[in-house]
Amino acid sequence: MQNLIRTVVLLSAATLITGCSYFGVYKRDIPQGNLITQEMVSQLHTGMSKAQVAQIMGTPLLEAPFSADQWDYVFYLDEAYGDTVEKRLTLTFQNDQVVDIAKSGDMDSNVELNQDSGPGPAVEGAGEGTATPRIGPSGI
């Protein structure tokens, strides 16, 4: 009788352990930084003021610590079941005007941030027709 109880307990434990690893864990896309679109980048040109750049791109994610003449816009997307997307835009200013625009990453492709679908809480402003995704360390 004890062998039967041990066998049943062992098989139940093995079933529970393999069941958890079989289905996997739900994952979400994790966007971080400033969203950089092709439309935004195409509007930038040398000679623009900081105010004009801020109107198009928003506030920069990073400013050079020893000089306010360099703004860095960084976007990073860790797709749940796929690749990662990295974009970086560095703007250098002189006398409050853009003198250099350095790009890295694939600026020609726009990233779809589809946070409205799937399980979980709704995104703030969803359903109003004009939801603007808030991007930060938590991904929303």
UniProtKB/TrEMBL annotation:
Keywords: Cell outer membrane, Lipoprotein, Membrane, Palmitate, Signal
Residue span of region Disordered: 108-140
Bias-annotated ranges (Low complexity): 118-133
Membrane topology classification: Lipid-anchor
The keyword Transit peptide is assigned to this record: no
Principal place of residence: membrane
Keyword Repeat carried by entry: no
Cross-referenced InterPro entries: BamE, BamE-like, BamE_dom
Compartments where located: Cell outer membrane
Domain called Outer membrane protein assembly factor BamE: residue spans: 33-101
Domain of life where this protein originates: Bacteria
Pfam families recorded: BamE
Function: Part of the outer membrane protein assembly complex, which is involved in assembly and insertion of beta-barrel proteins into the outer membrane.
Annotated HAMAP family: OM_assembly_BamE
Assembly and interaction partners: Part of the Bam complex.
Record-stated family: Belongs to the BamE family.
Protein name: Outer membrane protein assembly factor BamE
Species of provenance: Salinicola rhizosphaerae
Gene: bamE
